């Protein structure tokens, strides 16, 4: 059963956002729409289905969950189904459009809690539309729009953490320039609006509603050291219209985040990517101010027997400027100092069909700073690519 | 007995010039009729020329595009032949590095030929479609002209229509020839060797040797291609494994725990930075699945050529040995 919602997001905003996107894109694309015929290609289309077995450890209090339940250890069998695709289209000689979508259903059957067993169900979907126009030999401009939504029913207590449902709309304007020295510069102006779906018994989830804008500047310096390096620096302004500061002159929380980092990508016999990123978050509200750093690594390699292995590791360190005794918000927002590791092995099983075994581990901060829950699991997934 | 006055004739009481005028009008209408009918084949009069001009223009455009691509493909094919010869020289020299480098150039050029072949096939299909429309129109025009000639009375009109009919038929033959079966691609042809009545066993064995050498050239290309395909398929599997893992983690927001709240699209792995929309024509710039498809297509052709060369060589040797005549 879907949780009763104290408030649904105003659909008018979605409509306005979509209309704005169409308004921006249509005049740009209209002159070249005639050239679209025969230019649309599927870059990828994947149907995924599978089963997982997961365990969760950590008896911790929770703020945004429906019931007060507790356990040191919970387990779940999880079935999931997903569908994603990526379509590309050329518009004339210098325009390119892109439509991608990703949706999924995940059904849990969780055991081990004291009061009852839970059967949470997650539904999520994302649609992204983008357009890029090459203006000159060295300059390109683009726009991107993204809609994302998520629903969760029968959301369980900790330590089985599931991000609450929300609706989000985001958009970006992008530019890229290659200078004479073959350095590639890119800039992105982005905006996001997100609204969480709060059940009646946990209206505090609405505190996470957010509107934000930001800018990011990146450069690929083309250093002769193998692989590609990108250095980026950005800033974000976020407004939380549901979070009061209790200050008359500045009543709502506003955050300013400065982030910067370096990513290195290398394609050889092994595909590797390492990203290091730091964030400095300052706010007119005292509580959420923090500094954090994340190191991510992604490696893919071929093993004997037509097996490809992919490993992903994310390590995060975070320090709040002002320690507080009261509960923070839910993980995924402020308590985002998780570390994760995934290891997957995939091999072709039949024409267009891959089988994947995936192992995962997560250690994440709960609503109480400095306390962590862990999640570990093993999955078997089938990925079908019809190949059109 | 009273005689009834004679009934007035048709032209009784009318002036002779009026009668003459009426007759002239009738004759004019009789002569003009076929021309009018001819015009009605389109949408009447001058407007009838518009569809013809439009169809002819579309056809000419398709022909021009096809010829340009054909020329580019032939140039690439010629270059491919040169590279094949160089690769063979390198192979015989025993210099492995040189041979590998020459091989890489051969299959890169081969794929370039494949890419142009693909474009050529598409251009040929468009040329055939445009040609069919044009031929249909010319057929209708021919019918109209034949009707008009049959109905025409004045010799100058007939002569003019005959000329036009002859032009239409000439154009029909041209379009039929140009768009009938356009070249759509292929690799280097086998050496132009045939059995001559004067050939003795040694000449036949020499020709068989020539074919076997060509087969060996293709064999070395095939080996290189198989290696390239295997390497790209492995890479594709790695990329798919990576994409599947990242999609699986982000689909249900499991990655949101590692910072910044809701994930921002394209800000991390996966990249939003593929901004260059220019059409790539180099193999390495194409998406990996397309690279594999092209290389497989090239491999198929190379295998076909090798088999054909070997079969022909076998026939020549059999003739040389006298086992077949």
Describe the overall structure.
The complex is a heterodimer of chains A (388) and B (325). Chain A is mainly beta and 388 residues long. Chain A is 5% helix and 60% strand. Chain A has one helix spanning 11-29; strands at residues 40-57, 73-91, 95-111, 121-134, 139-153, 166-178, 184-196, 210-220, 228-244, 252-267, 271-283, 290-303, 307-320, 339-350, 353-365, 372-384. Chain A has a 16-stranded antiparallel β-barrel with strand order 1-2-3-4-5-6-7-8-9-10-11-12-13-14-15-16. Chain B is an all-alpha fold. In chain B, 73% of the residues lie in helices and 0% in strands. Chain B has six helices and no strands. Chain B has helices spanning 16-40, 49-93, 96-151, 155-180, 201-251, 288-321. The longest helix of chain B is centred in the middle third of the chain and has 56 residues, at 96-151. Chain B is flat. The chains are: A mainly beta (388), B mainly alpha (325).
Task: Explain the layout of strands and helices.
The complex is a heterodimer of chains A (388) and B (325).
Chain A: H1 11-29, E1 40-57, E2 73-91, E3 95-111, E4 121-134, E5 139-153, E6 166-178, E7 184-196, E8 210-220, E9 228-244, E10 252-267, E11 271-283, E12 290-303, E13 307-320, E14 339-350, E15 353-365, E16 372-384
Antiparallel strand pairs in A: 1-2, 1-16, 2-3, 3-4, 4-5, 5-6, 6-7, 7-8, 8-9, 9-10, 10-11, 11-12, 12-13, 13-14, 14-15, 15-16
Chain B: H1 16-40, H2 49-93, H3 96-151, H4 155-180, H5 201-251, H6 288-321
Helix pairs in contact in B: 1-3, 2-3, 3-4, 3-5, 3-6, 5-6
Whole-angstrom Rg of chain B: 35 Å
Radius of gyration of chain A: 22 Å
Q: How do the helices and strands follow one another from N- to C-terminus of chain B?
A: HHHHHH
Report the total helices of chain A: 1
Would you tell me the structural class of the helices and strands of chain B?
Answer: mainly alpha
Give the termini distance of chain A in whole angstroms: 37 Å
**Helix proportion of residues of chain A, in percent?**
under 10%
Overall strand count of chain A: 16
């Amino acid at each position: 059963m879907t949780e009763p919602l104290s408030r649904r997001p105003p659909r008018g905003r979605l409509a306005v956002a979509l209309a704005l996107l169409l308004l921006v894109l249509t005049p740009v694309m209209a002159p070249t729409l005639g050239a679209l015929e025969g230019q649309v290609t599927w870059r990828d289309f994947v149907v995924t289905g599978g089963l997982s077995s997961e365990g969760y450890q950590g008896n911790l209090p929770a703020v945004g969950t429906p019931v007060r339940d507790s356990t040191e250890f919970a387990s779940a069998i999880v079935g999931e189904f997903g569908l994603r695709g990526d379509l590309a289209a050329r518009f004339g000689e210098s325009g390119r459009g892109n439509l991608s979508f990703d949706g999924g259903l995940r059904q849990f059957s969780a055991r081990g809690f004291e009061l009852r067993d839970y059967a949470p169900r997650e539904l999520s979907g994302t649609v992204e539309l983008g357009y890029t126009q090459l203006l000159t030999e060295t300059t390109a401009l683009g726009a991107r729009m993204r809609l994302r939504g998520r629903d969760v029913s029968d959301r369980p207590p900790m330590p089985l953490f599931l991000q609450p449902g929300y609706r989000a709309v985001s958009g970006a304007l992008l530019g890229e320039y290659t200078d004479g020295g073959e350095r590639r510069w890119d800039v992105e102006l982005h905006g996001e609006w997100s609204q969480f779906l709060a059940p009646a018994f946990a209206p505090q989830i609405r505190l996470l509603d957010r509107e934000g804008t930001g800018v990011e500047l990146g450069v690929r310096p083309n250093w002769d050291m193998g692989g590609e390096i990108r250095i980026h620096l950005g800033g974000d302004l976020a407004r939380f219209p549901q979070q009061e500061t209790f200050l008359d002159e500045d009543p709502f929380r506003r955050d300013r985040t400065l982030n910067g980092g370096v990513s290195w990508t290398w394609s050889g016999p092994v595909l590797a990517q390492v990203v290091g990123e730091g964030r400095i978050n300052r706010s007119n509200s005292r509580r959420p101010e923090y500094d954090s750093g994340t190191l991510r690594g992604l490696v893919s390699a071929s093993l004997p027997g037509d097996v490809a292995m992919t490993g992903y590791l994310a390590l995060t360190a975070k320090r709040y400027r002002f320690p507080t005794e009261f509960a923070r918000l839910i993980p995924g927002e402020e308590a985002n100092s998780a570390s994760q590791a995934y290891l997957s092995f995939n091999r072709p099983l039949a024409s267009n069909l891959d089988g994947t075994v995936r192992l995962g581990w997560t250690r994440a901060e709960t609503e109480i700073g400095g306390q962590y829950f862990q999640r570990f699991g093993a999955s078997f997934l089938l990925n079908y690519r019809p190949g059109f | 007995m009273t005689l009834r006055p004679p009934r007035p004739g048709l032209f009784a009481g009318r002036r002779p010039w009026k009668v003459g005028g009426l007759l002239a009008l009738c004759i004019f209408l009789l002569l003009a009729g076929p021309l009018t009918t001819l015009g009605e084949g389109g949408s009447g009069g001058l407007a009838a020329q518009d569809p013809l001009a439009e169809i002819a223009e579309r056809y000419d455009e398709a022909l021009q595009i096809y010829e340009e691509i054909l020329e580019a493909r032939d140039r690439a094919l010629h270059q491919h032949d040169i590279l094949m010869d160089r690769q063979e020289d390198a192979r015989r020299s025993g210099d492995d590095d040189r041979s590998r480098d020459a091989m890489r150039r051969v299959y890169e050029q081969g794929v370039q030929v494949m890419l142009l072949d693909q474009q050529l096939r598409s251009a040929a299909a468009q040329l055939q479609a445009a040609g069919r429309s044009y031929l249909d129109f010319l057929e209708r025009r021919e019918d109209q002209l034949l009707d008009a000639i049959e109905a025409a009375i004045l010799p100058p009109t007939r002569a003019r229509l005959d000329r036009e009919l002859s032009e239409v038929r000439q154009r029909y033959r041209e379009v039929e020839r140009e768009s009938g079966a356009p070249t759509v691609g292929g690799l280097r042809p086998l050496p132009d060797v045939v059995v001559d009545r004067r050939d003795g066993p040694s000449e036949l064995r020499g020709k068989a040797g020539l074919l076997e050498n060509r087969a060996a050239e293709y064999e070395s290309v095939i080996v290189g291609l198989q290696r390239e395909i295997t390497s790209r398929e492995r890479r594709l599997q790695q990329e798919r494994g990576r994409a599947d893992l990242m999609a699986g983690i982000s689909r249900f927001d499991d990655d949101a725990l590692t910072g910044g709240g809701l994930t921002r699209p394209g800000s991390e792995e996966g990249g939003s930075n593929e901004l260059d929309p220019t059409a790539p024509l180099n193999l390495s710039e194409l998406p990996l699945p397309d690279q594999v498809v092209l290389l497989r297509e090239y491999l198929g052709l190379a295998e076909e050529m090798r088999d054909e060369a070997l079969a022909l060589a076998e026939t020549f040797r059999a003739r040389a040995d006298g086992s077949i005549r």
